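Q: Hi! Curious about what Cyclase family protein looks like structurally. Here's the sequence.
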Amino acid sequence: MTVDRSALEPSEDPGDLDRQDPEAEIGLRAEAYRNWGRWGEDDAIGTLNFIDDDKRAAAAGLVTRGRVISLAQSFDTDGPQKGWRRRINPIHTMTDTGTDAERGTQGFPHGIGGADDYITMPLQCSTQWDGLGHIFDHGNAWNGRRAGDVVTSEGDLVTGIEHARDVIVSRGVLLDLGRHLSPDTGELPDGYAITTPELEACIAAQGPSSAVGRGDIVLVRTGRYARARREGWGEYAGGPAPGLSLTTAGWLHRTEIAAIATDTWGFEVRPNEFDAPAFQPLHQIVIPNMGLTIGEMWNLDELADACAEFARWEFLLSAPPLPITGAVGSPINPVALL
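A: Let's find out. The predicted structure is below.
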């Protein structure tokens, strides 16, 4: 007898979620979409393995206008962070200034002077990547390793963000769910859970340049950042927001995308889709089990305008992390080249 494997897959209908049992719903999808061992027992980059030289070469061919768009939010004290888990906004401090140079207090010869500075900040306080050592599932890190063997007080000893320093350049695809689902405002309301059928409908509506496949980096615009810029940060960091439904885990797995990023603080819908206590359940599935790199707090508004103007939603995307040894995340200035 032939077994219908599709019948064994977790449901992609949010209405089928048992809202009282997040652990069971997470566990079902973690097991179904687990990539442990797929790239060998020593793997450190997960789904970023889907990006190869041919993929990058093809992506470079998408640059026809020479337009470069930064997808980064600002890194300054006027940022969204409110101190949760000791996350603060960047603190920029000058150690040498023009005033010092004018006063001749720097001790340099023949009139030369200079300015110098440093910055103090959490690595995930603004536009950033979540590394594979950022989230664990029942004490397990990516590829089935014990979390305590991976991340110690010395940092991420196995999957540190430095392993991706020369990897994250590929074809980028923008899915503007804000404009697709709310054409009047271009912004989804807080708590809106984006489903798999909606992702696929957005791709169909935007056209062939939005097709998503192996090695792509998908950018999902909800419009939440646009509202924060207009109305103030409010609860942008850690509060209610639109985002991906837990039920999109299957789509994230079968498309074989290399990475995904959103314009929100937490990537997935908030509040999460349960009546029982839950916190970032989609993270728990896709980072330690699937090995998927996630980006958050990206500025996708200018890119969305350009894509709409050119009627093309694909581009070369360069978004390497800072090679901070042992880090579980990294600030970035991703750029789209059209």
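A: A fun detail: Residues 22-82+122-337 form a domain with the Glucose Oxidase; domain 1 fold (CATH 3.50.30.50).
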